[in-house]
């Protein structure tokens, strides 16, 4: 890049100073619908008493991948109800989704006790006439598989324990007199909506990715109850068959990949007319079908086209990147502006030579 002088940031969205950040956090997050009394994060290893700062980082895996577990319990009459049982469930849940405890259960218990006692003290200081013994507190605890990037794996991350005490607003006095209920049976359409949405429910994907990664794989490929390959943990899949067909699973149970969709245009507009590919189709296939028919197996995601050279320790074709994958990669790299692309305003970059 040539020498540039940096001018003004041209955007309308405010960039906050440190003081403004604190002011905004206080203004926005101090007001809650419930009273939050104390917060603990093992990353910070301290109790935070100001709700404005009871925050988790944006790269948290609980937020990005649903890769966390939690539990919740009541504290009434200065007593944790079934604390041991809740902690056993918490520990078991963590094991089930492959998250290591960052500290012992005894240490977690001690922190929870400290938070509870801190919360009672805070309530007493707020109102020394309050019926502390009759006040119902809640504590919610979380174990996250970590943070540090927005990636899919947690194998390389440090788990984080969080806890928060609060006064719940559930109107138990009213509820205990009785309620109405409804059964809800999610139909095929609603289930598919959930499967097709790029929701933050990536727990299954995160576990699949960790499992593949721990064996030396890359993303891990999800297989459904019928044995059909669906998609990789964060990419779509497609394969070129020995008979020159291109096949990819239908998008009814998975996320519609924009990278695959774009590459399909190239396959349809160029590779088929030029005879490199015979036809492109979306249909289900299982592992046996892959092993018997595959010529090239390709991952498509996040504007990356990645050849799979081995699947379950079996070489794909000659174990080298295939010519179709190479052509798609070359075409993709040389993409000119496309419908839907938008140019970023970098008018603040002023070429020194011309100024
Ligand atoms: C589960 C899943 N499928 C497919 C994709 C591919 O989508 P795209 O090509 O739009 O990045 C992604 C991308 O993150 C994904 O997470």
TrEMBL record:
Keywords: Aminotransferase, Transferase. This is Class IV aminotransferase. It comes from the Eukaryota. InterPro entries: Aminotrans_IV, Aminotransferase-like, BCAT-like_C, BCAT-like_N, Class-IV_PLP-Dep_Aminotrnsfr. The lineage of its organism: Eukaryota, Sar, Alveolata, Ciliophora, Intramacronucleata. The keyword Transferase applies. It holds the Pfam family Aminotran_4. It comes from Tetrahymena thermophila (strain SB210). The keyword Nucleotide-binding does not apply. GO terms for biological process: carboxylic acid biosynthetic process. Belongs to the class-IV pyridoxal-phosphate-dependent aminotransferase family. Gene3D superfamilies: 3.30.470.10, D-amino Acid Aminotransferase, subunit A, domain 2 (3.20.10.10). One of its GO terms (molecular function) is transaminase activity.
